[in-house]
């Protein structure tokens, strides 16, 4: 077992507008861990902190970052789209990861993990590869399936006419903007309409009591995988965040398979 080095906070400029993306990376052994957080989440959440500790104890490399408009990264959240956050995910993965990686995606991060895998499969060469994937309540296609199709006609009209709608937060935070740009750009990245192929084993953890991503959404996702080794674990009393001690243990166990 190699010894992991302390995490270092760095910034990388991404995109034509040079978005300053905050990255915390710790060198270590393979396979490394690459964390993709959720919508309106940051890289210092309970699960990400638990993974940092796990990686340090096991001497494994660990990379996490904040999307633009999130956490320590620069930018306005209202400018965010799936395409922009995917561009940042690819840039950080390419710049900081080396060799085989286990990609862990939570909620929106699950969607981005699958999009990252597709992008890497189409790339000529990458310094890092995906050896396995762990998805937590993966919110694949959420802008369309869990937002737009669920919104009332009045909310849709406000987004179309005003360009945004202030959505109340279910987690005690201030309302946040759902923009027309987020919805329209999301349609360029939808996955559930076809087959998905990552080229690696996939483990999915899903709470049955999740109010944000219904467990049936995860079942539908599993049906879209063409050839991958996929295991779906349903947590009967689990919520969306899956951040309780027993949930963290389950997450660590899934990662330890790789």
Q: Choose one word for the global shape.
A: globular
How do the helices and strands follow one another from N- to C-terminus?
A: EEEHEHEHEHHEEHEHEH
Main beta sheet: 8 strands, mixed
Structural class by sheet pairing and helices: alpha/beta
Order of strands across the biggest sheet?
A: 1-2-4-3-5-6-9-10
Assess the beta-strand content as a share of residues. 25-35%
- Strand segment tally: 10
If you compute it from the alpha carbons, what radius of gyration comes out, rounded to the nearest whole angstrom? 17 Å
Which whole number gives the mean pLDDT? 94
Helix content: 25-40%
Task: Give the low-confidence spans.
Answer: none
Number of helical regions: 8
Q: What's the end-to-end separation, in Å?
A: 14 Å
Structural features, described:
The protein is α/β, with parallel strands linked by helices and 258 residues long. Helices cover 33% and strands 26% of the residues. The chain is built from eight helices and ten strands. The protein has helices at 46-58, 82-96, 108-122, 142-148, 153-162, 180-186, 215-222, 245-255, and strands at 8-14, 19-26, 29-36, 60-65, 99-106, 128-136, 164-167, 176-179, 202-207, 230-235. The strands form two sheets. It has an eight-stranded mixed sheet with strand order 1-2-4-3-5-6-9-10, sandwiched between helices. A two-stranded antiparallel sheet has the order 7-8. The longest helix has 15 residues, at 82-96. It is globular. The relative contact order is 0.14.
Q: What's the arrangement of secondary structure elements?
A:
Layout lengths: L7 E7 L4 E8 L2 E8 L9 H13 L1 E6 L16 H15 L2 E8 L1 H15 L5 E9 L5 H7 L4 H10 L1 E4 L8 E4 H7 L15 E6 L7 H8 L7 E6 L9 H11 L3
Parallel strand pairs: 3-4, 3-5, 5-6, 6-9, 9-10
Antiparallel strand pairs: 1-2, 2-4, 7-8
Helix pairs in contact: 2-3
């Amino acid at each position: 077992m190699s010894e992991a080095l302390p995490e270092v906070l760095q910034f990388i400029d991404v995109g034509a507008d040079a978005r300053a993306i905050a990255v915390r990376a710790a060198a270590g052994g393979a396979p490394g861990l690459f964390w993709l957080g959720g919508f309106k989440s940051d890289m210092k959440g309970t699960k990400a902190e638990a993974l940092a500790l796990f990686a340090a104890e096991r001497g494994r490399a660990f990379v996490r970052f904040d999307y633009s408009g999130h956490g320590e990264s620069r930018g306005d959240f209202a400018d965010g789209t799936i395409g922009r956050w995917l561009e940042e995910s690819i840039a950080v993965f390419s710049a900081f990861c080396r060799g085989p990686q286990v990609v862990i995606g939570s909620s929106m991060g699950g969607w981005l993990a699958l999009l990252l895998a597709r992008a890497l499969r189409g790339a000529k060469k990458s310094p890092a590869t995906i050896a396995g994937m762990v998805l937590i309540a993966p919110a694949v296609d959420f802008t369309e399936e869990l937002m737009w199709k669920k919104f009332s006609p009045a909310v849709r009209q406000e987004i179309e006419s005003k360009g945004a709608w202030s959505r109340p937060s279910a987690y005690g935070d201030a309302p946040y903007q759902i923009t027309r740009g987020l919805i329209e750009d999301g349609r360029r990245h939808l996955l559930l309409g076809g087959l998905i192929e990552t080229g690696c084993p996939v483990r999915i953890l899903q709470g049955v009591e999740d109010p944000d991503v219904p467990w049936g959404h995860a079942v539908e996702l599993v049906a879209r995988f063409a050839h991958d080794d996929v295991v779906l674990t349903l947590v009967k009393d689990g919520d969306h965040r899956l951040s309780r001690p027993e949930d963290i243990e389950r997450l660590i166990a899934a990662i330890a398979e790789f």
